[in-house]
Design goal:
Elements: H1 18-28, H2 38-49, H3 61-95
Length: about 100
């Protein structure tokens, strides 16, 4: 029995339809050219073949800013929890030290 892909759907982004493939090649000729690092090429390949399912692409600026904000909230929550637990343990040890 095979495992289901994360998110329930395997995202295969290769253009397998011949007419769509030709259309995308024509469209690509009008796009600017960029040079990718080896790491970026690996990430792109994994997005295309479903290795990063259910992702369909890279983060845009808005997604990145939202992620940074959520990460900050997570970190503050973790630190606050640790401070509370430490304070609680100190209080319990103080009260029970008789």
């Amino acid at each position: 029995m095979a495992n289901s892909p994360h998110g329930g759907i395997l995202k295969d982004l290769h253009a397998r339809d011949a007419s769509k493939h030709v259309q995308l090649l024509a469209e690509a000729k009008n796009l600017i050219s960029i040079t990718l690092t080896e790491r970026q090429l690996c990430d792109l390949e994994l997005i295309m073949n479903g290795g990063f399912s259910p992702l369909e692409g890279f983060m845009n600026q808005e997604d990145y800013q939202r992620f940074k904000f959520l990460l900050l909230i997570y970190r503050v929550t973790c630190v606050t929890s640790l401070i509370f637990m430490s304070s609680y343990k100190l209080l319990v040890s103080f009260v029970t030290s008789d």
